[in-house]
């Protein structure tokens, strides 16, 4: 007897796998905040947990108000989700169908491709230059069936970014009916004068959406909390496709506390500035190439030589109790991505890479 059969396009999906962890090892594979999260957010979780019998505010109004006040944007043009991942899922439901396509950069975040597959849509990947988004290549992939262009800026796993002038040029080259999604998961870490997460465009244009997450600099990855800001019509469509209580009360309370804790965010960014530079310089000194990163991780390239490959480096590091990210699934078989950890974790990572270089 044959049971129910899932749709063919669903069965073609390779499920997303997060960064692995090993008991007793340093987990530097998921770009998590090594400093944890705001103490105020922890206290808010404890307080919210006293009322788990109650449904959350389905509109997340207090959280949207807090986000709006933080960034000077209209709360009514914000939608919250269970991580920015859920926002992407909602976009797929609202805007994609078989025969459509999405456009992303060559090494774009894997979840974009997954939401296209779920809808039976095609994913078009534009070649990059030096692992950096190429606007002209992106525009060349757009056709009459393109519905969404995804731009992770900064990009994961490469760590690269494009300046706001290039983001505006990308938008200017798109048809009005194509939605430009600016994924700013790592925006808080960027310290470049020519960078913008794109709030201005999302506030002014009818086809630009900015997505953000509480998982990175805010350190709330376990609670699954993200949000998006954009045109009223797009936000309305996302509200119509989300679940009625898609963000828990605990997550909402933690998010409000976290976004108001400027001191914790500043401390996290300062730690990353110093340690990203230290780790990158040490890896280069050990003889391996690193790509410039503005996120909280660094992409390391290993030579295609016996005894020095990325696969052998990965095995060596794991034996030393350090887990970083294999990015072969992103089409980067010679690379590994290392999250920036605590100072002791980074000390051990540097020592292990130096030992591998000598082994």
Key terms:
globular, 39% helix, 4-stranded antiparallel beta sheet, 359 residues, single chain, 13 helices, Aspartate Aminotransferase, domain 2, Aspartate Aminotransferase, domain 1, 2 domains, alpha/beta
How are the secondary structure elements laid out?
Elements: H1 8-11, E1 26-27, H2 39-48, H3 61-71, E2 78-81, H4 83-95, E3 101-105, H5 110-119, E4 122-126, H6 135-140, E5 146-152, H7 164-172, E6 179-183, H8 199-204, E7 208-213, E8 226-229, H9 232-241, H10 249-259, H11 262-285, E9 289-291, E10 297-301, H12 310-319, E11 322-323, E12 325-326, E13 335-339, H13 343-358
Parallel strand pairs: 1-11, 3-4, 3-5, 5-6, 6-7
Antiparallel strand pairs: 2-8, 7-8, 9-10, 10-13, 12-13
